[in-house]
Amino acid sequence: xxxxxxxxxxxxxxxxxxxxxxxxxxxxxxxxxxxxxxxxxxxxxxxxxxxxxxxxxxxxxxxxxxxxxxxxxxxxxxxxxxxxxxxxxxxxxxxxxxxxxxxxxxxxxxxxxxxxxxxxxxxxx
Length: 125
Fold this sequence. Notes:
By secondary structure, this protein is mainly α. The protein is 74% helix and 0% strand. It has six helices and no strands. It has one domain (2-118).
């Protein structure tokens, strides 16, 4: 999680350095776009090949398999903050549902955005 926040701050600083001097802030929309790019990068970093599934990922996948989709997304987001984005993405991919992975991605961006707004690191759209 910290890695995502550090990447966000670095990309935000990079985007700010490219702006003209009279504009010293990024719009909330641009900040959300940067956050989305970072989450997409982290999700695509998780290998998409068939590697042996780790026992913790396998247990979590079995546990989530019969849950409703909304609950699966909720539990995956909790997993990001507890065990990290890599393990949560591996579980989501093992559930073998592109829809779920997409919903997880969108919900994670929303959750992170709201968290950064609450912490005062972003302004709300």
